[in-house]
Design a protein that fits this description.
The complex is a heterodimer of chains A (277) and B (326).
Chain A lengths: L11 E10 L4 E7 L11 E6 L3 E5 L11 E6 L3 H6 L7 E8 L12 E7 L3 H13 L7 E7 L8 H7 L5 E7 L11 E2 L3 H4 L9 E6 L2 H14 L6 E4 L21 H4 L2 E3 L7 H4 L1
Parallel strand pairs in A: 7-8, 7-11, 8-9, 9-10, 11-12
Antiparallel strand pairs in A: 1-2, 1-6, 2-5, 3-4, 3-6, 12-13
Chain B lengths: L1 E2 L1 H10 L3 E8 L2 E6 L20 H4 L3 E3 L9 E6 L1 H14 L6 H8 L1 E6 L25 E6 L2 E6 L2 H13 L9 H19 L12 E2 L4 H6 L5 H5 L6 E7 L4 E7 L20 H20 L9 H5 L6 H6 L2 E2 L2
Parallel strand pairs in B: 2-5, 5-6, 6-7
Antiparallel strand pairs in B: 1-8, 2-3, 4-11, 7-8, 9-12, 10-11
Classes of the chains: A alpha/beta (277), B alpha/beta (326).
Chain lengths: 277, 326
């Protein structure tokens, strides 16, 4: 097991084994940590390039996969632009894991509804694969994933496999189908997948991750369906430097997203509007 | 323990430690390194220095990997507003994952508090639930009575220093009634503060207060971030990687929540893009969030944000509109 270092800002050096192109803007990086890297699904790590920068990302593999681990990153700023350019064999720095993951013990015996949008599928894939590992502990899994367009939908090949797993109900949607792209499934924002779902809401746990606007409407839609706010899990992200509850940049109300999250339940917030801001 | 001020100050120099003390320049006080040459010019017991004590303990820009070995340091003449700010920073920065730089500096620093003998117009510790004399956090506290120092230790570190000092120097045991004299002096300063702040209500530093800043106040803000930088409890920082020839370094530098880019994420999303939201966030952070996080508010009433503000925004005017949330 990789030991946690005393200086909270010291990283371990990992080796990039493989880069998987998921979409025009999203890649998955397979990292050799040099030993088992223990984390709980939903926790995050600070990943980056030495001398360039680092950022918070959630591993996208099951937490039973301890080495190598996979991290899915969207190209959206300076550091992610640089990390998208690196090749097999490159050195990637990593520290963590940080924060609280999903409290899986509370999920036992329940039906799990996983709703994701865009690159928000990354932490949810980790959750899904972790749940599937012990699928008999849960009362079925419904997955609703959305993307802007068919080519923006990530993990395509794996999703095909997921739909074959007994106890798994997979639903996919894209916002629109641009000319030249093929799509035979549902078209519309991800919330359109939720409407027809028949759920035993009393015994359903929902886990949501995606862009702020998607999280907002998905949450509102799920609450309307009758999911209890305390059963609605949100995987949050905000501006973050330190990852360990010091720099204060990630605070939402009095919560540190890094330390108190990144997984929250809806009822934890006084003013839900603060979540989507 | 009683002693002569000159003797005590000379002793501090003899310890070989780095000693900071307040000196007056113009109308303000500043912490400077004490030397044989300037030791007669030390001004103890004035109102708090212009720069917050975090300048010494939590510098504006430092490298976090390869922490240097800091010299043993003594800060002489710390007002209670700064002592309480250090108490706050200890709670915020020395938790589960301690800030490695702060914790090293803090370990090697001895704080000598002092009773305030004067107040500044912006001073309002009493409104924030504090008093103008060392209440806690100090290693040693000085009250000046009749040209003598009355020394009291507040920690093992302070006790050790007192013991060492008393070995080779003429010290006297406390004389009867000395506490009463100290108390009288303190009462006079407290009364001055109460009078100065009579337009505002006294609050507690452990009770949540909820604030809606007035639009007028927000409109006058020019977003310079000065209030953040001079605040002794504001410790928000950025962490950036910088390339060096042979290695790389993580650089920690102060940030200010009043600046627009503070919470902006890659891709451009900004949860507090409007000034009102940032303004509101600052007060919520000071009077609500930090109480939930660390049990105490993040304002010690030093008033530096009032002095520094080009728009004359007075935190007490905002605080006047604070209602105690039950």
């Amino acid at each position: 097991m990789v030991m946690l270092v005393v200086n909270a800002f010291e990283s371990i050096r990992t080796k990039l084994l493989e880069v998987i192109t998921e979409s025009p803007t999203i890649k998955t990086f397979v990292l050799d940590c040099g030993g088992d890297f223990e984390f709980k699904t939903g926790q995050f790590v600070e990943v980056g390039l030495a001398g360039v920068g680092e950022g918070p990302f959630t591993p996208s593999c099951s937490h039973y996969t301890k080495n190598p681990i996979e991290i899915t990153i969207m190209k959206t700023g300076y550091m992610t632009e640089k990390i998208h350019q690196i090749r097999k064999g490159a050195e990637v720095i990593l520290r963590g894991p940080y924060g609280n993951g999903y409290p899986l013990e509370k999920f036992e015996g329940k039906h799990i509804l996983i709703v994701g949008g865009g690159v928000g599928l990354a932490p949810l894939r980790s959750l899904f694969l972790t749940l599937v590992h012990d699928i008999e502990r849960y009362n079925g899994i419904t997955v609703c994933f959305g993307a802007r367009s068919p080519e923006d939908l990530i993990y395509k090949e794996q999703l095909k496999e997921w739909s074959k797993i007994k106890g798994v109900n997979l639903n996919l949607s894209v916002d629109k189908v641009p000319k030249g792209q093929k799509w035979s499934g549902n078209v519309g924002v991800v919330t359109t997948l939720l409407k027809p779902l028949e759920l035993d809401v009393e015994n359903t746990i929902a886990a949501v991750c995606g862009p702020p606007i998607m999280m907002k409407f998905t949450s509102l839609s799920l609450l309307e369906k009758g999911i209890a706010p305390s059963n609605l899990y949100l995987s949050m992200e905000s501006k973050m430097y330190c990852g360990v509850g010091l720099c204060r940049h990630c605070t939402i109300e009095h919560y540190f997203v890094c330390k108190d999250g990144p997984v929250f339940t809806y009822d934890q917030f006084e003013n839900p509007e603060a979540i989507w801001a | 323990m009683l002693c002569y001020p000159d003797e005590f100050i000379s002793y501090l120099l003899e310890t070989g430690k780095t000693v900071y003390a307040p000196f007056k320049h113009g109308d303000e006080y500043f912490f400077e390194i004490l030397t044989e040459e300037n030791k007669d010019a030390v001004s103890l017991g004035g109102f708090r220095p212009a720069d917050p004590i975090k300048m010494l303990l939590f510098p504006a820009r430092v490298e976090l990997l390869d922490i240097p070995k800091f010299p043993e340091t003594i800060v002489l003449g710390v007002n209670n507003c700064d002592l309480q700010a250090v108490g706050f920073l200890d709670k915020a920065l020395l938790g589960e994952y301690p800030d490695p730089y702060y914790s090293e500096i803090r370990k090697r620093t001895l704080l000598i508090g002092v009773d305030c003998k004067e107040v500044k117009e912006s001073c309002h510790c009493i409104l924030q639930g504090y008093k103008p004399y060392p209440e806690s956090v100090y290693d040693l506290a000085i009250s000046e009575v009749g040209g003598m120092f009355v020394l009291k230790s507040g920690s093992e570190k302070g006790e050790g220093l007192l013991e060492d000092f008393s070995k080779g120097h003429s010290v006297m045991n406390d004389i009867p009634d000395i506490d009463r004299v100290i108390e009288t002096n303190r009462e006079l300063i407290k009364r001055e503060l109460v009078e100065l702040n009579s337009g505002w209500s006294i609050a507690s530093h452990t009770e949540e207060r909820k604030l809606e800043p007035s639009q007028e106040m927000v409109d006058s803000c020019i977003e310079c971030g000065g209030c953040n930088f001079v605040c002794p409890t504001c410790y928000c920082f950025m962490l950036n990687d910088e390339s060096r020839k042979a290695h790389f370094s993580k650089v920690r530098s102060w940030d200010a929540c009043q600046l627009k880019g503070y919470a902006r994420v890659a891709g451009g999303g900004n949860p507090r893009a409007a000034l009102y939201e940032r303004f509101n966030h600052r007060y919520s952070c000071k009077f609500t969030y930090t109480i939930r996080q660390f049990g105490i508010s993040a304002c010690t009433g030093c008033g530096r944000c009032i002095d520094v503000c080009p728009a004359n925004i007075d935190i007490r005017n905002a605080a006047r509109k604070l209602t105690i949330k039950k």
